Each structure stands twice: as C-alpha cells, then as structure tokens.
Amino acid sequence: MISGRQKSSRSLASPSSSRFVTETVNGSHNFVIKGYSLAKGIGVGKHIASENFTVGGFQWAIYFYPDGKNPEDNSAYVSVFIALASEGTDVRALFELTLVDQGPNGKHKVHSHFDRSLESGPYTLKYRGSMWGYKRFFRRTLLESSSFLKDDCLKINCTVGVVVSAIDSSRLHSIHVPDSDIGDHFGMLLENEEGSDVTFNVCGERFHAHKLVLAARSPLFEKEFFDGMKEENHDVVVTDTDPKVFKALLHFIYTDNLIEDEELSDASSLCMSSLSDGLAAKLLAASDKYGLPRLRLMCESVLCKIMSVNSVAIILALADRYRAMDLKSVCLKFAAENLVAVMESDGFEYLKENCPLLQSELLKTVAGCDEELSGGEKTRSVWGQFSDGGDTNDRSVRQRTWENGGERSQSIWVPLSDGGDARGRSRSRSPRQDD
C-alpha cells in the first residue's frame, strides 16, 4: 500500500490597493491698498480687510494693520495677517504673504511656508477668526521711504494652501482627458463662413451665420427661423445694436465664451458716463433679448468687478432693466452697506429720476442689513452711517431707528429733493456736534 499526503491548492484573488494622500488645495488673492497715508492713524489693533476669498472650501481674508497690531510697538511696524473668515475647526494650512516691490528691481518681501520643511507641520487655525501673520511685518519708516509704496499704494499678494487628506482607492494609473474643444471648432465654423445660410446686416456690416446653430442656442432665433408660419428668410437686417456688439454676440453663441476685448478684460477703464453704453452693458441687453442665461451671468460678473460707490446706482438700474437678478442682489447689498456715499453720487440722481421703484427695494435691503447686525456681529450699522456724519461707533442709532422706523425710512429720500444733504439733514440746520 502506498500512502502519502495530497497537496491542497488555493486560488489567490487579485490584490487590491489603496493609498492615503495628503496634499494642499492652493489659491491666491491680490490685495491693493490705495490711500495708505489716509489709512494711518486709525489706531493700533484696527485693520483694513480685503474681500473674502475661497480656498479649499473655506473663506479667508487679508488683514492689514497700518498702525500695527501690538500696542507695545507704538505703531513702529505695520502688521499683516491672514484670517479664517468662515466657520471651521482645526483647519490646517500653509501660507505665503508677499509685499510687492513696485520699483524696477522687483525685490519682493516674501514670507512663505511653501517649498521648505516645517518642523512642526502646517499651521492650525482653531476656529473662525483665527489668524496667521506678522505683528512686525515691516517697519513703517522704512516702508514709507521704499519702492514697496508707490503713488500712496501698497500691493499684498497672499497664497493659502489648505491641507486635505483622503483615501485614494482608485486605480493608480489614469488617462488624462483634455478639455472639450467643441467651442474652438464652432468658432472656426463662424470664422470660415462655410455652409452659412443666413446673413445679418448690422449698420452696413454683414455677418454670415448658420440657422441651426443660432436656433439651438437661442429661443428667439429658433422662433425666427423655424416658425412654420413665417417665410424662409436668408437676409436679416438688425437695427437695435451695433456691429461690435453683434460680433461679440455671435462669438458667444458659437464658442460659449466672451470675445477677447480690452473693454471686457479691463472694464474698470470705463468712465461712469459711458458705462451704460459699454460692451458689457450692451451684451447684457442682448443676453436678455436672445434668451442666453450664461451670457447674462458672464456680463453680470464683468459689471460686478467694476462696481463702486460711483457706479453702483447705474449698474443696479442695468441689472433691473435686463433681469440680471444676481447682479441686482449684489448691487442692492453694496449700496445699502455704503448708503451715505452712494446717495451723494451722480448715479444716485439718475436712480431717483428714472427708477423710483428701486429706491423702495434699496430701503428694504437697508432694513434687512441692519436686522442681520442685530445678531451681535461687530460691524458698522447701516443706519449708523447717518449719525454724526458717518460715525462708525454705532452708538444708539439702531435702537432709535426701529422705535420710529417709518418716519426714518421716509426721511432718507425727502431731503434730496428739497435742499437736504445726502445724510438726511436739512442744509438750513446746523449739524449736531459729535459726542
């Protein structure tokens, strides 16, 4: 008899894999401070804040202290900090602050966590309002005699890298898919005019296009070209716009992008008197007429970037006229937060004469802004702008306002038409003295 042991065979499954990845999500913000000399003297520990910007799912802001943050320094240094401006707990991040040298040498002052080893790892911000930065960022006397300060202007660039970690169990190898280039192909179709079947005559300038493309993008063109009740039309005369605007309109319809134009890339160069006649405003009107919501948003974004105390009233009127609701909401909030200055602008006179209903909406927004502040947030009351010529301490103005809210709401507008000043006081009366 032959005896022995039989070997058992086991089949092995294909091994799986995973990896734990820690990396940073980076974003930058450029902060320009104009009128540095006027900002001095606001007091130690008081700052000028940039607009909030978003990186890694959190909001951030740059705080600049013209008189320094530390009382012990006796305003000998300016301070710069990056603050967590949204809710968050133990947010880990890397930071870089750059004071831009505006002279020919370009020797910027840089404080950076990036591209170097950190002994204790990234900086941790515990909660909203936590900051990282330098109390002694730059000695003031040296700053004011350096090329960092030019035309009373400082430029500070900030980069934030939020640390994120995740398990990546996807395949370790991937194939990159390039961005869509369909817009480039359709743009060539428009440029080459190949297969065009309709011609637009705009003030004597002719544009060749394709009915199917136009109809697919715009409900107005669809109705114009494919309404069974209408005769086929190969030549269309356009009388309500100019060639530059119509060319930009066709470019968007074919490519889904704004045309490259200096007026759109640097709309801030427009003077207030020409704002309503600018390319962005006219394209906003075209987006409303032809039913192009993405073009509307693009124009809203351009106009939003140039919004100021002097221009907000005109931009608000444009937004209301062409149903640009996002832009209108931003304008109302901005005007409410800067009400006194806006009411003294030429644009506000235009608003009074041409858009009286918008004044009621602005009042409601003012009331809403002040109501939000009643939660205890430490910021300037909107109504407080009317006390003592714009006193920022917001003493008891809010309480008095709500006790007699109806009378206060009415008094904002009336003095502008019967000799009052923009703060709601009659010019014949002496302004009361500061406390």
How would you explain this protein's 3D organization?
- The chain has 435 residues and is of the alpha+beta class.
- Among the domains are: 20-167, Apoptosis, Tumor Necrosis Factor Receptor Associated Protein 2, Chain A; 181-243, Potassium Channel Kv1.1, Chain A (2-Layer Sandwich).
- The protein contains 16 helices and 13 strands.
- The chain has helices at residues 36-39, 140-144, 182-192, 211-217, 219-226, 243-255, 262-265, 279-290, 293-305, 312-321, 325-337, 339-343, 346-354, 356-373, 397-403, 405-417; strands at residues 19-34, 48-49, 53-55, 58-65, 77-84, 91-99, 109-112, 123-125, 131-139, 153-168, 198-202, 205-209, 235-238.
- The strands form three sheets. Strands 1, 6, 7, 8 and 10 form a five-stranded antiparallel β-sheet that branches. Strands 2, 3, 4, 5 and 9 form a five-stranded antiparallel β-sheet that branches. It has a three-stranded mixed β-sheet with strand order 12-11-13.
- The radius of gyration is 29 Å and the shape is globular.
- The termini are far apart.
- One of its GO terms (biological process) is protein ubiquitination.
